[in-house]
Amino acid sequence: MHTPPFDIAAVRRDFPILQLPIERPVAFLDSASSSQKPEAVIAAQAAYYRTTNANVHRGVYQLSEQATYEFERARGRVALFIHAHSAREIVFTRNTTEAINLVAHSWGGTNLSAGDVILLSQMEHHSNIVPWQLLAQRTGAILRAIPIDSSGRLILDDLDTLLKGVKLVAVTHQSNVLGTINPVHYLASKAHAVGALILVDGAQSVPHMPTDVQALGIDFLAFSGHKMLAPTGVGVLWGRKALLDAMPPFMGGGSMIKTVTIEVSTYADVPARFEAGTPMIGEAIALGHAIDYLNGIGMAKIAAYEETLGHYLLDQLAEVAGVTVYGPPIGPERAAMASFTVDCAHPHDVAQVLDSEGVAVRAGHHCTQPLHAALDIPSTARASCYLYNTTHDIDRLVDGLRKVKTLFA
Amino acid sequence: MSDMYRDLILEHHRYPHNYGTLDPHDVSQEEHNPLCGDRIRLDLRIADGKIAEVAFSGKGCAVSQAAASMLTDELIGMDVNTARAYGKEDVLELIGLPLDKNPVRLKCALLSLKAMKVGLYRYLGQKLDADELD
Fold first, then answer.
1. Does residue A150 lie within any of the structural domains?
2. What total number of domains does chain A contain?
3. Nearest-CA distance A352 → chain B (Å)
4. pTM of the entire predicted model
5. Does A356 touch chain B (CB under 8 A)?
6. A359 and A223 part of one domain
7. Residue from A23, A339, A348, A356 whose CB has the most chain B CBs within 10 Å, to mutate
8. CA distance A407 to chain B (A)
9. A3 within some domain
10. Are the Cβ atoms of B10 and A407 closer than 8 angstroms?
11. Of A243, A263, A295, which residue is a domain's last?
12. Residues A202 and A303 occupy one common structural domain
């Protein structure tokens, strides 16, 4: 194990929950589900409610102006974080799911018709499948999926055939189960070559690696705050401005209008057009502070550290007899997470025994039933790392797995 | 945890009682838990208003398998109306696990009960109130 590229002990001290004894401090290995929050983020959200609380874009009084300023500053930080051209390309949503639904409803409802194809992949999270099914039911569009090989990578040999008739490619940047990092830039160029757009589910990638939407060459990016140190309830849709400008509203209500009569309304410019009602002000401000925290360490350093953790995780799991890990082998196309099964115990039992050892992992299908069907397993246990994890957490996981083996063998 | 995986649970998980299927049967009902993909099928033969034979099959966690194994032991010879009225508290007492504050694992423990009740109500031509399964 190389020396971490930042002070990991200091980082751990920033996270109050990692100091809590449950029976002993938790080895939290479920950040792919939702990350822990540093004090700076918790304090920023509390500070909004303590000192700045007022609605945004409405009042002419100082508190509202201050709240609006902080809220819009957070939008700007998000834009910089992913290299958007402008903060106007950043739409605050509740989460990744809502961001994808927004595109499906608003862009898809306008631009797709019967027979048009939406190309997904076999490894998508339900949030990047079901919105397109709903759209397909409304429009007559057709869903198609890029298959995966036995190591959990996309099979791209027949991509040109798969792309026939495709109007939109919707793929995850990083699988929430396999840890596979997909070649998004390549998929974007292939999609554009046939006149299709590409939406990327960045829920698992944006928290863990530098993100540059220009370099990726994509059209839409959806991600969630709560997986990147921010509170629940705030997510992001980024879209190219020209695309967003041409899209009709998603939900109607306050804030998203220019003029309203009883009969008809005109709509606000983006991003306000897609932000009906009072938004998640404190959460968005806290997301801005989460981004500051991540930038303070550096996304490249975080990615480098997680790569070493990922190597260690896979190496250690390989040492436990009877453990089968799914996904690609160790390498740059593999994130620091592992979904696995244990030959003698069901994933729920594995997770329960690990919990009793103070190790938090997730068990189930992780909202990827089509992927688990392709792997021909009903469920897996999943250990996922973030910047605050250490090799000690992974050692505790492995010790716990040996307990599982003893108990169930 | 020590409670959840005490010897009796592990014993029933390793060596489940009444594992298999019945053919012919009077009741055959499969239920699954969408959270984890577990499936349990429960078959019953009924004679003179009593459960004469019972078998379960399927795959799942230790809790769901052990609960099914213990429940099937309990059901043999039971009056159909008694079985129909069998409930969550009965199963929890039977398996001896305090799962009231563990809703995820509670679903595991009650999967076989759900199969039994859904199947039995259908056999009796009666409507099962969804509340009975909560």
1. yes
2. 2
3. 7
4. 0.92
5. yes
6. no
7. A348
8. 8
9. no
10. yes
11. A295
12. no
Distance CA B50, CA B44 (A): 10
Contact by Cβ (8 Å): A181, A333: yes
Rg (chain B; Cα; Å): 14
Answer yes or no: A385 catalytic: no
A348 touches chain B (CB under 8 A): yes
Could you tell me the fold of the domain covering B7-133? Sufe protein. Chain: A (3.90.1010)
Q: Where among A264, A280, A295 does a domain terminate?
A: A295
What are the residues whose beta carbons fall under 8 Å from the beta carbon of B100, sequence distance 6 or more? B92, B106
CB–CB contact A355 B1 (8 Å): yes
Single-letter residue type at B102: N
Residue A144 pairs in a beta bridge with: A119
The one-letter amino acid at B43: D
Catalytic residue among A243, A367, A374, A377: A367
Alpha-carbon distance of A36 to A30, in angstroms, equals 9
| Domain residue extents for chain B | 7-133
Same domain, A21 and A105: no
Which residues from chain B sit within 8 angstroms of residue A33, using beta carbons?
none
Alpha carbon distances (Å) from A234 to A70, A74, B57: 15, 11, 44
Neighbouring-strand partners of residue B51: B46
Instruction: Write out residues 309-338 of A within 8 Å (CB-CB) of B.
Output: none
Instruction: Evaluate whether residue A251 is within a structural domain.
Output: yes
Which residue does chain B place closest to A353, by CA atoms? B1
Domain coverage including residue A236: 43-295
Give the pLDDT of chain A (409 residues) as one tens digit per residue.
567 899 999 999 999 998 887 667 889 999 999 999 999 999 999 999 999 999 998 878 999 999 999 999 999 999 999 999 999 999 999 999 999 999 999 999 999 999 999 999 999 999 999 999 999 999 999 999 999 999 999 999 999 999 999 999 999 999 999 999 999 999 999 999 999 999 999 999 999 999 999 999 999 999 999 999 999 999 999 999 999 999 999 999 999 999 999 999 999 999 999 999 999 999 999 999 999 999 999 999 999 999 999 999 999 999 999 999 999 998 888 999 999 999 999 999 999 999 999 999 999 999 999 999 999 988 999 999 999 999 999 999 999 999 999 999 8
CATH number at residue A394: 3.90.1150.10
Interatomic CA distance for residues A103 and A121, integer angstroms: 18
Q: Are B36 and A363 inside 8 Å of each other by CB?
A: yes
Residue A145 lies in a domain: yes
